[in-house]
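Researcher: Structure prediction, please.
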Amino acid sequence: MTEVRVPTLGESVTEATVATWFKKPGDAVAVDEMLCELETDKVTVEVPSPVAGTLSDIVAAEGDTVGVDALLANIAEGAAAEAAPKAAAPAAAAPASGAGSVDVMVPTLGESVTEATVSTWFKKTGDAVAQDEMLCELETDKVSVEVPAPAAGTLGEILAPEGATVQAGGKLAVIAVGEGATAAAAPAQTQYDTPPAGNAGPGKDIKDGPAAEKAMAEAGISRDKVTGSGRDGRATKADVAAAVAAAATAPQPAAPAAAPRAPVAAEDAAREERVKMTRLRQTIARRLKDAQNTAAILTTYNEVDMTEVMALRNEYKDLFEKKHGVKLGFMSFFTKACCHALKEVPEVNAEIDGTDIVYKNFVHMGIAAGTPQGLVVPVIRDADSMSFADIEKAIAEKGRRARDGKLSMAEMQGGTFTISNGGVYGSLMSSPILNPPQSGILGMHKIQDRPMVVGGQIVIRPMMYLALSYDHRIVDGKGAVTFLVRVKEALEDPRRLLMDL
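Model: Predicted structure follows.
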């Protein structure tokens, strides 16, 4: 007997509600097949089966509140375990493709991520593939995931074409191995097959997920009030929540989510190109707008004379690289200066949770990085206890992984403060937007020689504008200005960092 327990629910989340059971006692289950869905106040978590077998009994029923590691159900193994995978797998269309085939499945996508979009297939049906050779790339709202071939053989069929939305644990393709590799497997109808022409929208044959249906029933909202964002127009639980929120905040007839597009002349329309937003870009857009709607964002500015930092860097950059194997950049100075200032103004390193203020006695520094797919913010954990060399190594390594699309979900979660460097693109001044639930973000800009008055004389100095955007609900103007002044002081006289002044 194998126990099914509540997984880790996320930072500071200790309990959840059992929303939906997808199986009932006596049902055969396969390894990693979804058993139930848990709902917290922040995310929805699907619980996969740890083994193949038969669902013996359900301990926590729908609606029950459960804690982390609480017992949800029991799975009986043995003879039933042999039948479960066979029952879960689609039947082959031809006898030759059954025994000599290996399924290509959607890998684990990360905590709270349940679906992805197939962005690119590197192979086509009939191509020979080697074991661990990359077959396709999936795109979630956070990261890109490459899917390797589980075995060598011939790509028999692709079940999820480019653009299809797939669930964690779903089937992507079939590889013919052994004798079956001599011919591609016959196509089989699956949940990911492209729908027939004329069935692009939701209809009587398109069924919403059980979690969405339950959410609509509990909220008392009709299906026509919910705009489905899933495949073929299916509604998700998030769509239901959005519809309920829209109804609650709009007693008068709701305005369209976006202003209607202005008419376009026919000759101009012929020269336009319409491209669907990637999941990452949609998430960026949603989060940035949520930040504006939720936080009381205010920005304060200052400028810093970079003379001393530049001189120190030029003097020691060769020795630094020779000893530590990484170049000495400006980001380590700014990271150190921010960690120093956050100790004096802790509210900039805090967050609001309901009616509480949560102060962080550590600094997990987010470093915004631009990638071909969009802006991501990898997090350097415990940056306040790291040396200049450790910070530079971490920034270089995470920047490289960000550009390659290799960052994991864990590497982009838990940040307490963020630094964004628009100067690398030539920005002279900007107002960064908060990265919720953080209360502060520092914007760096271009270093530019400007005439300054120093000691009664006009001299040319390398100057940079700094911008601190902060949540005015928790950070007062005095604290924001003090933070920015402390960063300025530390950069204009780096010795203050050594003396902790």
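Model: Residues 372 and 403 are 7 Å apart (CA to CA).
Researcher: Thanks, that helps.
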